[in-house]
Design a protein that fits this description.
Strand content: 15-25%
Strand order of the largest sheet: 2-4-3
Largest sheet: 3 strands, antiparallel
Shape: elongated
Number of strands: 5
Order of helices and strands: EHHEHHEEHE
Helix content: 40-55%
Length: about 120
């Protein structure tokens, strides 16, 4: 053998680069582990829309290039998996508008924290 001891640190990082480790809160991870990729895309669109602008099923289907019935089914699936994540508002003309409530928006937009070890970086 070339080395007398086995290597103990497999993912060893040198002192040349700062070590950055992303830390995701349990609340954020809990929401997104339950959702499919399409459902995550719907939630992302609703979060990134302005607070005053609530989107209809037709708006979402046009943005994602899918059928309205597919979007309706995916939104219902999101509502079952994550209660309170998406809310509906019924307009006077009977059209439903979807939005993410402010409290959920604050939780989901809370950026992933980044820890930076400063040992030999500077």
């Amino acid at each position: 053998p070339v080395f007398k001891q086995r290597q103990t640190a497999v993912d060893k990082q040198t002192a040349v680069y700062c070590v950055q480790t992303a830390v995701q809160t349990a609340v954020q991870a809990g929401f997104f582990t339950k959702l499919s990729i399409s459902e995550k895309a719907i939630v992302g669109i609703l979060i990134n829309s302005s607070e005053e602008m609530k989107l209809s099923y037709e708006d979402l289907s046009a943005m994602m290039g899918k059928d309205t019935a597919t979007i309706r089914g995916q939104v219902n699936s999101i509502k079952q998996k994550c209660v309170g994540l998406i809310e509906e508002q019924l307009e006077r003309n009977g059209k439903k508008r979807l939005y993410v409530p402010d409290n959920m928006r604050d939780i989901l937009l809370h950026k992933a924290k980044t820890r930076q070890k400063r040992s030999k970086c500077e």
